[in-house]
Amino acid sequence: MPPNNTLDALKVWDLPTRFFHWTLLALVVACWWTSGEDGNIDWHMRCGIAVLALLLFRMVWGVLGSTTARFANFVAAPRAVLDYFAGMRDKSAPPHIGHNPAGGWMVLTLLGMVLAITLCGLFANDDIMSEGPLAHLVSKGMSDVATAWHENGFYSLLALVGLHVAAIAFYLLVKKENLVRPMLTGVKQLPRDMSVPQLQMSSGWLALAVLAVAAGAVWLLVTLA
User: What is the pTM of this model?
Assistant: First the structure.
């Protein structure tokens, strides 16, 4: 966006949302790193449990969090997504403060895939000496199925991440819109003539409380089940 067509930077992403985004990325990388032959299965499980706690936090934050973090704010109807793509073709698609309609569904898809992989990991086993914290609750056959889904699901996740990165590159190179910087700084440049609604930023203390409850709930699940 050219400087003469922007207004002062607007804060669109709160710190808890940005913390979730980058911490989840780091934990997924850590899960991959510790899953190889030279990895450490104990740390793999710890990272996976941390991912589950983080996802639970995001689910709650999608209801209680700041305006742009709420699912109701960025999960659009299928028709709105089609209209957005049509607008992309004729260059009439308006800019969005947070996620655009297509990006919102990508967020849900990524979260759903990571959640599915993580839940399967709870019931998985390596056929040697390690198993997920909930594997004892199901039969060996079901645990083997969960193991296969857990392992193969990661390749589907890689494909989704590749699509996500490609979309970010497209916005940067074609639309001249940097989507990474706002997720780092929290602020975004918007067209001067754009109507900007009042955004509510939820308390960081509320986010800490939600994260603590999510972590406690996951700890109880994996230790008492």
Answer: 0.91
| Length in residues, the chain | 225
Contact between 188 and 10 under an 8 Å Cβ cutoff? The reply is yes
Q: Are 104 and 96 in contact (CB under 8 A)?
A: no
| Tokens 């699901």, residue located | 153
| Contact by Cβ (8 Å): 74, 99 | yes
Angle between helices 140-173 and 101-122 (to 10 degrees): 150
Is the C-alpha dihedral spanning 90, 91, 97, 99 positive or negative?
positive
User: In 10 A of CB 103, how many CB atoms?
Assistant: 20
Mean pLDDT of successive 10-residue segments in the chain (225 residues)?
57 96 97 86 95 98 96 92 85 81 95 98 90 95 96 96 95 90 92 78 96 97 89
Q: Residue 121 and residue 84: Cα distance in Å, rounded?
A: 36
CA distance 142 to 130: 16
Domains of the chain: 3-224 (1.20.950.20)
Nearest residue to 100 (alpha-carbon basis) of 171, 160, 187, 157 = 171
